[in-house]
């Protein structure tokens, strides 16, 4: 019950101001978002890479209101790519982007987002890495998939995310698997209506398994974005049955969640990529992490009460 309430709060400006200003918020936020700028996050990248993990970097921020902010988002990613270059990690450190942050929700947003994200995709390719387009709420997805297709014309390794909770996703998965794309499959983190999305956990999990099979049996590169132990072992088994080698798929998890499992899989020889978000505009990202696990909220509230 708590999850949808927290997701609704994630869209509220009043809650944003309250939560962001509370001094006790910071230590809880730090668990999921290990820095506010590139300088703070570079040592984290080096540390994770040193432990045999790969990364996908997210500069947080999604509710922008002007083209200038969209350009600032583009520049933040370009700066990150510039700072990654000397580390020589290549595809071991890729980028995840939310098109809303590149202007997708503004007037003329589709073209604006494409114009802002293209230089990031090209700069990433120049240092031997790539970009994955995150999936946001269902109203944004036609535009996201069209931008993905457009970007793949020049940079075919550009990836995208699909969400198991949406009814449309099985068809999207078939199309993407046949096109040979890199695709991250996740359960889905937004509050979606019953007209477009499964609401029950068991339905979402079953859809996840069906979609994962399509990806594993297809031509592309599946990225299993989940912390769910059952889905992780099903993913391993499906990859084996599909005859995929260890470098023909990967697991992805969020920074700060199930670190032991990330290491265990990497020690077994799996490719494991840690989605690492940083930046100052962390509210939306943080609230989705609280909504996924009510125990996080209890920890957060307890720390507010006991300070
Ligand atoms: P589930 O929520 O069932 O969790 C399984 C177990 O994992 C829990 O029992 C708990 O132990 C642990 N866990 C999960 N979430 C936790 C949390 N927040 N705090 C502490 N423990 C937690 N969504 C989206 O809509 N668009 C996107 O682009 C992305 N991108 C993305 C990238 C990557 C790499 C990941 C891993 C996830 C996303 N997501 C996402 C989020 C995704 O949709 C989903 O909300 C979360 O991954 C939680 O679902 P699980 O599959 O982990 O299962």
Structure description:
The protein has 307 residues and is an alpha/beta fold. It has one domain (34-281): TIM Barrel (Alpha-Beta Barrel). 52% of the residues lie in helices and 13% in strands. It is built from 13 helices and eight strands. It has an eight-stranded parallel beta barrel, surrounded by seven helices. Helix 8 (169-178) links the parallel strand 4 and strand 5. Helix 6 runs parallel beside helix 7 (141-154). The longest helix has 18 residues, at 67-84. The two termini are 27 Å apart. The model has no long low-confidence stretch (mean pLDDT 93). The protein binds dihydroflavine-adenine dinucleotide (FDA). Dihydroflavine-adenine dinucleotide binds at residues 134-135, 161, 163, 186-190, 225-228, 252-254, 257-258, 275, 289, 292-293, 296.
State Rg.
Answer: 18 Å
CATH architecture annotation: Alpha-Beta Barrel
The shape is globular
Helix content: 40-55%
Query: How many helices?
Result: 13
Largest sheet: 8 strands, parallel, barrel
Binding site for FAD: 163, 187-189, 201, 226-227
Domain Proline dehydrogenase: 44-299
Binding site for substrate: 98, 288-289
Enzyme class: oxidoreductase
């Amino acid at each position: 019950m708590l999850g949808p309430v927290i997701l609704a709060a994630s869209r509220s400006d009043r809650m944003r101001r309250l939560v962001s200003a509370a001094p006790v918020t910071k230590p809880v936020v730090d668990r999921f978002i290990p820095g506010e700028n590139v300088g703070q996050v570079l040592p984290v990248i080096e540390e994770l890479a040193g432990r045999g993990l790969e990364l996908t970097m997210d500069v947080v921020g999604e509710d922008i209101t002007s083209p200038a902010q969209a350009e600032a988002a583009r520049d933040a990613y370009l700066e990150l790519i510039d700072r990654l270059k000397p580390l020589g990690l290549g595809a071991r450190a890729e980028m995840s982007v939310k098109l809303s942050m590149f202007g997708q929700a503004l007037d003329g947003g589709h073209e604006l987002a494409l114009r802002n994200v293209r230089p990031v995709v090209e700069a990433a390719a120049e240092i031997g890495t790539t970009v994955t387009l995150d999936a946001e709420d269902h109203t944004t997805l036609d535009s996201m998939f069209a931008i993905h297709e457009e970007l793949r014309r020049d940079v075919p390794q550009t990836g995208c995310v699909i969400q198991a909770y949406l009814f449309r996703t099985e068809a999207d998965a078939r199309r993407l698997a046949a096109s040979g794309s890199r695709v991250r499959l996740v359960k889905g983190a937004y509050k979606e209506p019953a007209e477009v999305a499964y609401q029950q956990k068991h339905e979402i999990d079953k859809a996840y398994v069906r979609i994962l099979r399509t990806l594993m049996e297809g031509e592309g590169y599946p990225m299993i974005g989940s912390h769910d132990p059952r889905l992780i072992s099903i993913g391993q088994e499906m990859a084996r049955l599909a005859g995929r080698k260890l470098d023909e798929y990967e697991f992805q998890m969020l920074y700060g969640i199930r670190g032991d499992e990330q290491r265990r899989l990497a020690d077994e020889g799996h490719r494991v990529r840690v989605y690492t978000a940083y930046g100052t505009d962390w509210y939306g990202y943080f609230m989705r992490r609280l909504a996924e696990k009510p125990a996080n909220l209890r920890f957060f509230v307890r720390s507010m009460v006991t300070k």
